[in-house]
Amino acid sequence: MNSETALPRDHSAVEAIVRGRHGDPFSVLGMHGGDGAPLTVSVFAPPAAEVAVLDAKTGKVAARLERVHPEGFFAGPVPRRKKRFAYRLEMTAGERSWQAEDPYRFPPVLGELDVHLLAEGRHRRLFERLGAHPLTLDGVAGVAFAVWAPNAQRVSVVGEFNAWDGRRHPMRRRHEAGVWELFVPGLERGALYKYEIVGPRGEQLPLKSDPLSFRQEAPPRTASLVEGLPARDWRDADWMEGRQARQALAAPISIYEVHLGSWRRGDGDSLLDYDTIGDLLIPYARDMGFTHLEFLPVSEHPFAGSWGYQPIGLFAPTARFGPPEGFARLVERCHEAGLGVIVDWVPAHFPSDVHGLARFDGTALYEHEDPRLGFHQDWNTLIYNFGRREVANFLQANALFWLERFHVDALRVDAVASMLYLDYSRKPGEWLPNAHGGNENLEAIAFLRETNTRVYADNPGAVTIAEESTAWPQVSRPVYSGGLGFGYKWNMGWMHDSLDYISRDPIYRRHHHDRVTFGLHYAFSENFILPLSHDEVVHGKGSLLGKMPGDRWQKFANLRAYFAFMWTHPGKKLLFMGGEFGQEREWSHDRSLDWHLCDDPAHAGLQHLVRDLNRLYRGNPALHERDCAPDGFEWIDASDADSSVFVYQRNGADGGDPVVVVCNFTPLVRHGYRVGVPRGGSWDEIFNSDAELYGGSNVGNGGRADASGEGWHGRPASLDLTLPPLGVLVLRPSS
Question: Are residues 84 and 143 in the same domain?
Answer without folding.
Answer: no
